[in-house]
Each structure stands twice: as C-alpha cells, then as structure tokens.
Amino acid sequence: MIGWLRHQKHAFAAALRRLGAHPVATLLTALAMGVAISLPGGLYLGLGHLDRLAGDLPAQPEISVFLDAGASTAEKQRLAARLQQADIAEARYVPKDDALATLSAAQDLADITAGLMQNPLPDAWVVRPQTTSREELARVAADLGKLPGVAETHLDSQWAARLQAALAIGRTGVWLLAGLFAIALVAISGNAIRAQVLARRDEILVSRLIGATDRYIRRPFLYVGALQGMLGGLAAGGVLAVAGTLLRAPVEHLADLYGSAFHLLPPAATEIVVVLGLTTLFGWLGAWLSVTRALHQVEAAR
Amino acid sequence: MISFSQVTKRYPGGHEALSGVNLAIEKGELVFLTGHSGAGKSTLLKLIAAIERPTSGVVSVSGQNVGRLPQRAIPYLRRNIGLIFQDHKLLFDRNVIENVVLPLDIAGFDHRESLKRARAVIDKVGLLKREKANPVSLSGGEQQRLCIARALVSRPALLLADEPTGNLDAGYAADIMTMFRDFHQVGTTLVIATHDDRAIMALGGRTLQLDHGKIGEVAA
C-alpha cells in the first residue's frame, strides 16, 4: 500500500516534469483541447440562457378569447357556459381593468397607460384546452371565435411551444456535439501521448529489463494525459470567459431594448467541476488507449 | 539455482541458437560462458532472465519454470537478477545516480533510502565523484561500471553479465573482473559470458564452452 502510494507520487511528479519540460507542446495541446471543448461548452451555456428566457413563458398552448366591447350579458354568459365543456381544461376570465393593471406593472408603461382617457383593452378569457395538437387547437379557437360577442381569438403560446421544441433539439445537439468533441479530446490526448511513448522507447525497454511492470511504465503517461485533459478544460474555461466578457455588453444592450434586466451568468461551480472532471477523464482515457497500444508495439519491435 | 533441461532456442527464420542444452548452476557459483560469437552465449543469458523464451525444454531459476512464466510475473523475476549488458543500456536523459536508483524506484522503495543505497554502490564502483554527471560524459569503462552499479543496487542473488569487458582495454577489464570476484566471495551467483581468457585465468571458476549451440564443460 505504501509502495503503491509512493509509485503514484513518483508518477505524478514525473508527469509534471514531463509537461514542464515541453511547455510549448503542453500549451498547444491544451489549447487544441480547449477550443474543442469550448464549442459544445459555449453552446450549452447559450442554450441555458435561452432556456432561462423561455422558462418565464407558458409552454402550454393557450387561446386568448377577446370579447366585443359591446357584448351583452347574455352573450357573455353563453360564452362562459361554452367554456365549461369537456374540451376545455381551464378558463380564466381577465377583465379589461385587470389587463390594464398588469400591463402597466409589467412593462413600466405606467406613464403611458396613465395618460389614456379610457381603457382600450377588451375583456378577455384565457383558455387552456385539453388538447395540445395543432389541428385540434385551431378547431377549438375557430369554434370559440364563431360565438356571438367574441371579437377575436388568438392562439397564444404556440410560439413558446415551438421555442421549447427548438430548444429540445438544441439540447440534443449539444449532447451530440459534446460526444463528438469528447472523441476529439481522446484523440488529441492519445496522439500527444503516443509521441511521448515513442520518444521514451529506450527508457521503456531498459525499465522492463530491470523489472518494471507495464503498470509502472504506463502510470506517468496516464497522469500526463489526465493533467493535459484538465489543462484543456481550463483552457476551454479561458476561451469561454473571454467570449463571455466580449458578449456581455452587446447582450445587455439588446435586453435593455426589450426592457428586460436579462444578463449573462457565469456557469455554476458544479458545472465547472463536472466539465473539468470529464476533460480529465477523457485525457486519461486517450492516454490509456495510446500507451497500451504503443507498449504492445514496443514489445513487438524488440 | 539455475538448470537447463534439453533447452532448444530457435529464432524466427530458423536459426537455432541453442540445441538440447543441459546444465546446472549451483547457488554461489561463478561460471564463465565462452565460445565464438554467435555460439549462443547471449541467448543462454536471455533465457535465464526471461528476455527470450525457449522453443523447447525447461529453463528453471530458483525452482521457477522461467520459460512458462506469465508475462505479468516476469518483472518480479527480473528484480532478483542483476543484468549487465555489453552496450550498458544506460539512460542518457538522467545523471549517474538517477540511473542507479531506477531499479529501486521501480521496486517501490523509499526514495531517500534508495538514494543512500545507490550512493554506496556508486562508491563501490568508484564513480562517487561523478554521481551528478550525465552518462554521456563517462568513458567506456566508467559506463560499464555504472551499468554494474545499477545491476547491484537491488542486491540480487544472481548476476548475469554479457561481455562485460568486451569494449574495454586491459586495465579497466581487470578492475571489473576483480569486482566480480568480490561479489562471488560474498555469495552472489555469477554467470559471465566472455571471450576474455585472461580474465578467466585470473579469476578461476567453472567454464562452460558453447559451440554452435551445444555445450561442453572445460576442465579448470
């Protein structure tokens, strides 16, 4: 056990020395990995922000039913009765005064609405039908629109549902991309390690002659791969931090134009830890594949 | 300690380096292997250290059938054998003491303790003043002594030397043979492949003559 720990310590120190001995190569490999990781990483962060934006919007499709300004009480009652039927999951009445109040509060339009002589908004129902299929929704909306006293129906939240669907594709895309770039990471690490194994061919042969196990020979290379992967992860963090800094001002300007306090957030600590852990793991994996293969070749060439 | 029973080694391509070799070497013996180059001296040493495996027959070291040893067990066999090579097989990316300490690091000893032991062995072969030097800057004789120091540092019970004085002038060769006699006197088993007859005369010991892969004993 003590011998094992000692071996780990030695291998780790040797790995640091090997990385330090070729700082430019180390840096270039880290940079290549960093760029590869920053692509899916950046996309993931971007989608997270879109998700945060869309999260405030109702994803369930709703139909807004706007009443005629001159609708009679009987007409209103008939509509209310219609909305009790089985194809309607939920219906909420929004009197025009409430709508105006919400509008003035939500968008800082108080000064504008205060200047209005009278409330221009109609009374409305916000209706959530049972169905979510597009054809059914359209049928329900048309049905409601034909009732007397109804000025207009509007299928509201379909765009939100579409956005959600697009985001879902985006998320799948991020995972696909992350998978591809994980393979790239393994390949970059494996290639760097292969060169190192070949450069240390003599050392490997001599070490074997004086009683080194394959595990002993492999260990420093695995540490090099893992450390290289971690450096790659850190480089990706650097790339994304620079991109975030450059994007912050324009994004906030755009959000401002929409009257939103939306701004870019840095990734969560757990996300950073997970990404660094994964890049370390993939760096290690690339090293393992490469060194195992190269050791067989060295053995065969002997 | 070492026994060969009907050992044949045929290399790919058909060259038969050893044919039906039988021999037994006791613990603590000093044995010289002689013969023309290509007679099979190196092959015989390689079979003992499991660097090669016999085509047929049984090679046994300390009761282990070396030819049938699984790959993962070979490193542990080698840790008990000191190997001395004609071409030294030193590592030129590290200094003298780092070369010598390598077998102990591989075996997982405490590094500070290992350095002490390495320094003692380097002193024994007369290289203490050069412990920080790169092996490239050493003479042929010094490199050979460094190779011996590395073989000795783990205090192996068995030393195998392949032409240890092959490239050296007479003075250095005599030094190294004297060193071997000292190890023999403290009980180490030595098998030395050489065609240096003067050394054999000087040290005495048993001599095995190899001729075209067959073995014969030479009366001392």
From TrEMBL, chain A:
The beginning of the lineage is: Bacteria, Pseudomonadati, Pseudomonadota, Betaproteobacteria, Nitrosomonadales
In Swiss-Prot or TrEMBL terms, this protein is called Cell division protein FtsX
Transmembrane ranges, per UniProt, are: 21-47, 173-193, 221-247, 267-289
Q: Which UniProt keywords apply?
A: Cell cycle, Cell division, Cell inner membrane, Cell membrane, Membrane, Transmembrane, Transmembrane helix
Where does the FtsX extracellular domain start and stop, copy by copy? 62-152
What InterPro entries does the record point to?
ABC3_permease_C, FtsX, FtsX_ECD, FtsX_proteobact-type
Q: Where is the ABC3 transporter permease C-terminal domain?
A: 176-296
Which Pfam families does its entry note?
FtsX, FtsX_ECD
The record's comment on protein family reads: Belongs to the ABC-4 integral membrane protein family. FtsX subfamily.
What do we know about how this protein assembles, alone or with others? Forms a membrane-associated complex with FtsE.
Q: Which GO terms describe its biological process?
A: cell division
Instruction: Give the location in the cell.
Output: Cell inner membrane
**Which GO cellular component terms, listed alphabetically, does the Swiss-Prot or TrEMBL entry include?**
cell division site; plasma membrane
Q: Which PANTHER family match?
A: CELL DIVISION PROTEIN FTSX (PTHR47755:SF1)
User: Topology in the membrane?
Assistant: Multi-pass membrane protein
Q: What is its main location?
A: membrane
Function of this protein?
Part of the ABC transporter FtsEX involved in cellular division.
UniProtKB/TrEMBL annotation, chain B:
Protein task = Part of the ABC transporter FtsEX involved in cellular division. Important for assembly or stability of the septal ring.
Q: Which family does it belong to?
A: Belongs to the ABC transporter superfamily.
Q: Does the keyword Iron-sulfur apply?
A: no
Q: How does it assemble?
A: Homodimer. Forms a membrane-associated complex with FtsX.
Checking InterPro entries in the record gives: AAA+_ATPase, ABC_transporter-like_ATP-bd, ABC_transporter-like_CS, ABC_transpr_LolD-like, Cell_div_FtsE, P-loop_NTPase
- Write down any Gene Ontology CC term: plasma membrane
Principal localization?
A: membrane
Subcellular location per the Swiss-Prot or TrEMBL entry: Cell inner membrane; Cell membrane
Write out the GO MF terms. Answer: ATP binding; ATP hydrolysis activity; transmembrane transporter activity
Picking any one GO biological process from the record gives:
amino acid transport
Q: Which PANTHER family match?
A: CELL DIVISION ATP-BINDING PROTEIN FTSE (PTHR24220:SF470), IMPORT ATP-BINDING PROTEIN (PTHR24220)
Q: According to its record, how does it sit in the membrane?
A: Peripheral membrane protein
How is this protein named in the record? Cell division ATP-binding protein FtsE
Per its UniProt record, what Pfam families does this chain match?
ABC_tran (PF00005)
Q: Which UniProt keywords apply?
A: Amino-acid transport, ATP-binding, Cell cycle, Cell division, Cell membrane, Membrane, Nucleotide-binding, Translocase, Transport
| Stretches assigned to the ABC transporter domain | 2-220
